[in-house]
């Protein structure tokens, strides 16, 4: 048997190095390498084709009962999950400190327990009495949720193995958080890469064998990614990100990975005194309630999965004295796409932003990633530059090409119907989109220059 060697493991990405160094070669993180004992290395080669246990193979059309979904009792949470929690699945939810992860999961645990399911809530960061105090403040003190405060994975699995009725495993197991768990099989401190990987592996194996829906809370790093090894996100079935500013009231639950549903659905919540409330109509959050038109403000029907969300895009241009360097500031949109759109407006439409500072903001802290917002952003920029307000009852969507052509986007009828439902009357869209069923007055544009000429009264 060869002598075991020491290795140095990165606490951010899980990369290994034979010696310590200040910067990780894989992810570029500084001072993230920690010494860990490597597994025992055997000199003899093993024949893995012999001595194993024969597996039972099935086919895709086998008549075997499929795992069922359990509704969480919170419609926005179910929407992000794709319909509810799947029995035996592992879900990882991450977010900034204080964003509301524990509050959401405590409310979910209480709703499912009140529905007759067996639920166990294990906290590694708070005492059981502290969790009970928070549940009482949220009005959940009477929910039959089983509580415990522990960090040992062995103790947790020994306890929850018979926590349900008739000694069965619970229907839902919440671990808050995975970074506080430790396994006695690994000789390292809790929170390290090896401990997080080993603890998650044991908990996920228990969930798969027992049919328990497992929900893990994960910490995040300063750049917003889930802390610990990247392999943790590969091990679980669903990865959810709880987004939002602590100073703002609203939160967005977004699916980053989902083996049992789509990754384009979101759930919207509002943080109030009684905890998290669902927001069934998110468009009301991101639209400004104003009685008169304002230059530089347009409305864009964004699409999150199957849900249209109307958001307001605000633009401001400030003319500078000659010689000053203009500034470009963007909040909620891609700064590179703004630079491209400004170049198209200057080159194809004859507008000049060279001596103007440009500020672009998506209201409500919303973030837009789809190119369908190009026309709405261009309309806001033209309105701000010309100081001509856009009508309050108008929406805009369409992709702008480098040639100035306005291209069609997906799910246009769905966007138009949502705008009609919220009281909008006119839509600026690509030329080949028909809106006979929506009831809106549609103005189609083949090129961005057509819209600019119409606004400025040219030609």
From TrEMBL:
RecA family profile domain boundaries: 66-220
GO cellular component: cytosol
An example Gene Ontology biological process: recombinational repair
Top-level taxon of origin: Bacteria
Any one GO molecular function term: zinc ion binding
Region (Lon-protease-like), start-end ranges: 357-459
Designated name of the protein: DNA repair protein RadA
